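The aim of this short unit is practical: by the end, you should be able to scan a pair of folded records and say something sensible about each. We start with the first protein, listed as its amino acid sequence and then its C-alpha cells.
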Amino acid sequence: METKYTVSGMTCQHCVAHVTEEVSAVAGVDQVSVSLDDGSMAVTSAAPIAFDAIKAAVDEAGDYTVAPA
C-alpha cells in the first residue's frame, strides 16, 4: 500500500535525503519517495504505518512538518 504525505520546510536535496533516511528507518516501511519540487512524500508498506511514527521520523530529520495528503 502507498500512503501520501505533504512535507513542508525542505529547501534542498540534502533535506530530501534526511527525510528519506529517517522515514526509511521506520518499522514496516518498504520504500520512501520524497519530492522537493512539490513537497510530497509517498511511503510504501505492506501494512498501514501509524502517522505518529511517520511524524516522529520527519521531526527527527530536521525542522520539517508533515501532514497526510
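Turning to the second protein, read its sequence before its C-alpha cells, just as you did above.
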Amino acid sequence: MALDSAKKQEIVAKYGRTESDTGSSEVQIALLTARISELTEHLKVFKKDHASRLGLLKLVGQRRRLMKYFKRTQKEAYNKLISDLDIRDNI
C-alpha cells in the first residue's frame, strides 16, 4: 500500500524545507499520515486483513515517535503541521 511517486512528490513539495528535502520531520510525518489514511480506508473495506492492521499499528507508532520529537524540538512548526494535516495532538 505504498504511495505513488506523484503523490509523494506533491507531499514533499508542500511540507519540505527545500525541493529535495525528504528526511525532515515535517515530510516524514506528512508521508506517514497519507499512508495511514490509505490503510485506514483499506481496512474499512477488508475488515479481516490482519496483516495490514499490524502494519497500520506500526506506522501509527512510528508517526507518534516522530511527532513527539518534533513537538519537543520545534513547537510552533509542530502546531502548524498538525493543524494542516488535521491530526490530534495527543502527545
